[in-house]
Design a protein that fits this description.
Elements: H1 6-13, H2 18-32, E1 37-41, E2 43-46, H3 75-87, E3 92-95, H4 105-118, E4 122-125, H5 128-138, H6 142-152, H7 167-173, H8 180-192, E5 197-203, H9 209-226, E6 229-236, H10 253-266, E7 272-273, H11 277-280, H12 282-288, E8 295-298, H13 317-326, E9 330-334, E10 340-343
Helix pairs in contact: 1-9, 1-10, 2-10, 4-6, 5-6, 5-8, 8-9
Length: 344
């Protein structure tokens, strides 16, 4: 079967045949992830700090160093959050924060090793821009930074910080963050070191549909080389309380479903596509399971970044089980590596 070209992906993004595009994506999902299972994970987002020097215009969460609301979570607080996660049946933690000017690799080595000493849990943490920043603050290469973090307990990298991997767009929305080449280089090196991860796309800000296709193109190209991405997660930009509020139109449900379906069709070398109920709501996340998605993401025991925009959605594992069954699939709890914990 021939691969979807960039021109074809662009045509599909502009198609008015929403159900037809969704049906094609679902066929690919059934080929790449056969069987009735739809998965989710019980984990927690822990934002270890809100201090950030990147100044992203799409972010409502960050604050400047020295601001009254600035924080770095004490180790004991992080440990308490993880214990609560474990008690709720959680198997992983997603730790991300701002680009703090004072947190070097030694801070994260102590943090990760202290977690691994106390808990049997997957550390799925630190976006590519955070890795670039930590390396710079520490006076190390990205390769050495990743090696030390892995040795201290880092298991996999989330795909955050990708936004749109087109530098013209990045200069508008995230001028202080790693550029496209740097993001891809971090992921490539992580994959070479056996640190698997995910890729994301935040769409609906200032990018064009051509930019979305270019984003998917560079992701597919890197995946051809390394095979290190387990999943792709497209999610729609939420502008509330950000510097971009009022300057962009929110992605509609149709736009979201079309973009998700095209990502499933185009990214034929990434096994899993995750539906983003956090930004779209659980009902649309349920619909997405017929548009190419095979995973409903996380129960999100804690989530602060999207919530800072005013969008708050909360679900538990029972809600996800109910939604998956309602869409005609069999619910299963998974780990970060997509191995199954239990089938419901």
């Amino acid at each position: 079967m021939s691969r979807l070209t960039e021109r074809e992906a662009l045509e599909l993004l502009g198609s008015r045949d929403l159900l037809g595009v969704g049906a094609r994506a679902h066929e690919v999902r059934e080929r790449l992830v056969p069987g009735p299972l739809v998965t989710f994970i019980i984990d927690r987002n822990i934002n270890y700090t809100n201090v950030c020097v990147a100044g992203c215009r799409f972010c409502a969460f960050h604050c400047a160093p020295g601001a009254p609301e600035a924080y770095v979570l004490p180790l004991e607080v992080i440990h308490e959050k993880i214990q609560e996660t474990v008690d709720l049946g959680g198997t992983g933690i997603l730790m991300q924060g701002g680009l703090h000017p004072d947190l070097d690799v030694a801070y994260f080595e102590e943090l990760f090793s202290s977690i691994k000493e106390r808990f049997e849990i997957t550390i799925h943490s630190l976006s590519a821009p955070e890795i670039v920043h930590i390396a710079r603050v520490s006076g190390l290469t990205v390769s050495e930074t990743l090696r030390r973090l892995k040795a201290s307990g880092l298991d996999s990298l989330p795909g955050g910080g990708a936004e749109i991997l087109v530098d013209r767009v990045r200069r508008q929305v995230a001028p202080g963050k790693a550029d496209t080449k740097s993001w891809l280089a971090v992921m490539a090196e992580a994959h070479r070191q056996g640190i698997m991860g995910t890729a994301t796309m935040m769409f609906g800000s200032v990018e064009t549909v051509e930019d979305r296709v270019e984003h998917m193109r560079v992701i597919r190209e890197l995946q051809d080389e390394t095979g290190g991405f387990r999943a792709f997660i497209p999610w729609s930009f939420q502008s509330g309380n950000t510097a971009l509020e009022g300057t962009t139109e929110q992605a509609t449900a149709v736009d979201y479903l079309t973009t998700l379906a095209v990502s499933r069709l185009y990214l034929d070398n990434i096994p899993h596509i995750q539906a983003s109920w956090v930004t779209q709501g659980l009902k649309l996340g349920q619909v997405a399971l017929r548009f190419g998605a095979d995973d409903l993401g996380s129960t999100m025991i804690e989530e602060n970044v999207v919530a800072a925009t005013g969008v708050r959605a909360r679900v538990n594992s029972e809600d996800l089980v109910y939604a998956i069954r309602g869409a005609g699939f069999t619910p299963a709890q998974r780990r970060t590596d997509y191995s199954v914990v239990r089938v419901f």
